[in-house]
Please model this.
Amino acid sequence: MIIDDDISIGDMLNEALSGEGYTVSRAYSGTEAAMLLTNSKPDLVLLDLMLPGLSGEELLPRIKDIPVIVVSAKADIPLKVELLLNGAADYITKPFNIQELLARVKVQLRRGGNSSAGNNILSYHELTLDTNMHTVSASGNDVKLTRTEFAILKLLMQKPEQAVAKFTILDRISDDTPDCTEDSLKIHIHNLRRKLKAVSGKDFISAVWGIGFMLSCES
Model:
C-alpha cells in the first residue's frame, strides 16, 4: 500500500512496483489509509509523513504487524531515529533512487515472509498448510509435496485469489529453492496442481495469462 498525497510520486511508485509484479493499493491521506487498513492487510506499507488528515507520525503506531517503509522529504536524523524506534522498518528520504527503494521493499518482504508473524497455519477452502510442520492436507488427506512445491503453495496461499507474477514467485521462493527457474516453475506448478486435484478432486491453481498464477477454487 502506498500512502502519499503527492499524485505524481504515487503514480511513479505504482508503475515501478507493478512492473516488478506487485499488487498495489493506494491511499491519499492518513485518515483514508486508517480506514482501508481496518479491512485489508497489505504485505508492506510505503508511508509519507506529511499527509492530510492523520499525519504519517500519527498513523504509524496504528499499523500493526505490517512492515512500514517511511518515504519522506524530512531528513532530520533525530526524527528518523524516533520513527525507527517506534515501529518503522526502514526510512528513505525523498528524492530517492527507485532501484534502491525497490531493493528495500524486497528486503522487507523477505523478512516478513520468513517471520509469518507467528501464524503458522494457512487455510483456503479444503486446503490447510502448516508452515512449522511443513505439512499440507486437502479435504483432510495428507498431500506429499516437494520442497519447491511446498514453497510455491505457501506463497499462493498467502495471497489467495490474487494473481502472483512468475518473477515474484521465483524471487520469493529463492531462499528455499534457489534452483527453481522460469522453465522449471511450469513443471513444479503442473505437478502441484495434479497432486492437489488427485486428493481433493478440485483445481486449486489457475494460470493468469501474461502474469503468472493464482490460487482459486474450481471443481
About this structure: Confidence is low (pLDDT under 50) at residues 114-118.
